[in-house]
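Lecture 7, part B: from sequences to assemblies.

Below are the input chains for today's worked example.
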Amino acid sequence: MSKEIKNIYKNMNKYLEAAPKDSKGSSGLVPQRGTQDDSLSVVNYVKQIRKLRGEMNVK
Amino acid sequence: MLNKEPMLDAPIPGQSLTAEPGSYPWEQPPQLNTVEEVIEKYLPLFNDEDIVIDLLNQMEAGIPITSIVSLLTRSATMNGVHSIDTGLLASPVLIEMVISIAEASDVKYTIGTEDVKDDKPRMSAISASLAKFKEDADVPMEEEDMPMEEVEEAPMGMMARRET
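Predicted structure of the full complex, as structure tokens:
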């Protein structure tokens, strides 16, 4: 099972690296129409944890 | 090396069919059904001081994080908390949490996904060289002619001169 976990983690890393970085564009409704929130909750969790960890390391 | 001892601790074929169906926790419907529920179940673990210390000790001992997470999810699956697939899907989040704990505590860790350059020789190469060594050892060594020192025998008779 450890092998499957490694594969999942590697694939998720690839997905996150391939995904475009957060860009702070206009907050109007028209630019937001095209953007989709990540439907994968696991990816969202991982993104948030990495973001928090990055902030902690900067401090 | 080959283990010549028989594996006596392996299950007998058909042993899994001898118990009543549904008698084990993992044969029951899981308590948690979604990935979110599974993640929320695990997150409080990382606030427990004893568990965090155990995790740090394991990482300091060189155990990869993927193995630690695998153990966590597998034991919960065995206890019927969640199914294997939801545990697998939640595992990246658990890995990230464990990495965060390690970095906050300045503990060196290995995730387990790193490409390790294997400097160790393969077992086949070792066994081939061992076989060659054995063959060489079986060949009798040629005896070299060693010059023998001639030792003069001391006269043993009663009339022989005694050494002073």
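Note for the exam: Chain A touches chain B at residues 1-2, 4-6, 8-10, 12-13, 41-42, 45-46, 49-50, 52-53, 56-57 (CB under 8 Å). Keep this in mind when comparing with the next example.
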